[in-house]
Amino acid sequence: MLPKDITEDVIKRIKTVKGQLGGIEKMLDDGKDPNQIINQFKAAEEALNKAHILLLDEVFRKGLALQLADVMNACPGNCQDAEQIAFLKKKFPQLELDEITNKMQEVKEINERMIKNNVKPKE
């Protein structure tokens, strides 16, 4: 489940896009200048992209946090990847969306190494 503030923000952005699309429809009906219509399409597209990125960032950030918590529990500072895990934990809050997906792959690789070396999470 998404946090309420993220949900509200995405819904607000979607409503903005709906309004922009309604405006585009009216502009078409009224025979407005195609350049103005194109500008409205660009604005609607940008607003939808921002909502999409906001949602992706939340989902990926949560996924990375869960993966990171698993490997931190399995390696409380005494495994071969301890330094990399500590670095990821420190950098986590500042990661951009494109970095999050890369770091998710890194954490997945750490987890796979731990499984291969039979390191189990502490209960």
Q: What features would you describe in this structure?
A:
- The chain has one domain (4-116): Up-down Bundle (Methane Monooxygenase Hydroxylase, Chain G, domain 1), CATH 1.20.58.
- It contains 4 helices and no strands.
- The protein has helices at residues 4-29, 34-74, 82-91, 97-116.
- α1 (4-29) runs antiparallel to α2 (34-74) and α2 runs parallel beside α4 (97-116).
- The radius of gyration is 22 Å and the shape is elongated.
Quick overview:
The chain is an all-alpha fold and 123 residues long. The chain is built from four helices and no strands.
Q: SSE string, helix = H, strand = E?
A: HHHH
Mean pLDDT: 87
Number of helices: 4
Give the biggest sheet. none
Task: Give the amount of beta strand, in percent.
Answer: under 5%
Structural class: mainly alpha
Number of strands: 0
CATH topology: Methane Monooxygenase Hydroxylase, Chain G, domain 1
Which class in CATH terms? Answer: Mainly Alpha
Helicity, as a percent range: over 70%
Shape from CA axes? elongated
Rounded to the nearest angstrom, the radius of gyration is 22 Å
Tally of discrete structural domains: 1
Low-confidence stretches: none
CATH architecture level-2 label:
Up-down Bundle
Give the distance, in angstroms, between the N- and C-terminal Cα atoms.
25 Å
